[in-house]
Amino acid sequence: MSENTQKDDRSGDTVSFGYENVTPEEKTRRVGEVFTSVAKKYDIMNDAMSIGMHRGWKDKFVRRVKPQPGEAILDMAGGTGDIAFRMADRGANITVADINQDMLDVGAERAMEREQSEETGSLVFTCQNAETVAFASNSFDAYTIVFGIRNVTFKDKALAEAYRVLRPGGRFYCMEFSTTQWSGFREIYDVYSDQLLPRMGEAIAGDADSYRYLVESIRKFPKMAEFEAMIRAAGFVNTKVEPILGGAVAIHSGWKI
To answer: What is the pLDDT of residues 159-171, one digit of tens each?
Structure first.
């Protein structure tokens, strides 16, 4: 197997769904069910799970992306619009893509409720699979994906598509959960993830199993250096990793030349 294949947790004809090995088709279906189940409570759960810190992380992420007025940006796995709204407020034209229509419906509803000014960029919501994006090559100035790529069945295919749809000089930015390197905090974080998050999912969203899967998907995601290597293997240059909370969260970036 190639390095990328190993990093995508493939085993023969199966891939990982949390700690289980399932067929690629089964993973795609079950991930869809997870996000359909949690769509309406997704943003509330983000606040609860991160004690509101995800808002600051997303603000930092958008500052790194530096969206410019009139730019075309593809926000993949951006269903509920959290990242897209921030970038549109800076004047960029955002295509919000997600494989899950229920998540997109939540985002589109939120978009209709937003106050917009003349400086606000446009927002378009479209159902897309990150592995087979239905856009022409060299279409976008930037590609963003936040807390979404770990749920993609074949991450190397998604990265290849990100590279393809970007224009030369385009930038790739990804924020994803990873493995914290802070001793002491790591043990506390593991207990919190294993024991408290599923209970919070049950209490707030009525769904412990979906949040148990989300914890497992974080554990199975490649470590920061490994994922950076995958980004380079897709063709990106000048790659960089910015750890947050010792790597519990990380911002990855790269450029297409």
So the answer is: 999 999 999 999 9
Question: With helix as H, strand as E and coil as C, how does the chain read?
Answer: CCHHHHHCCEECCEEEECCEEECHHHHHHHHHHHHHHHHHHHHHHHHHHHCCHHHHHHHHHHHHHCCCCCCEEEEECCCCCHHHHHHHCCCCEEEEEECCHHHHHHHHHHHHHCCCCCCCCCEEEEECECCECCCCCCCEEEEEEECCHHHCCCHHHHHHHHHHHEEEEEEEEEEEECCCCCCCHHHHHHHHHHHHHHHHHHHHHCCHHHHHHHHHHHHHCCCHHHHHHHHHHCCCEEEEEEEEHHHCEEEEEEECC
pLDDT tens sequence across 11-27: 558 887 777 777 888 88
Contact 180, 218 (CB under 8 A): no
Distance from CA of residue 147 to its chain's centroid?
Answer: 3
For 113-124, give one letter per residue: b (16+ CB within 10 A) or e: eeeeeeebbebe
Q: Of 221, 216, 212, 229, whose CA–CA distance to 249 is shortest?
A: 221
Question: pTM of this prediction?
Answer: 0.85
Q: Tell me how far CA of residue 73 lies from CA of 96, 167, 200, 241, in angstroms.
A: 9, 11, 34, 21
- Domains of the chain, CATH where assigned: 3-255 (3.40.50.150)
At residue 83, does pLDDT exceed 80? yes
pLDDT tens sequence across 25-79: 888 887 777 777 777 777 777 777 777 888 999 999 999 999 999 999 999 999 8
pLDDT at 6: 40
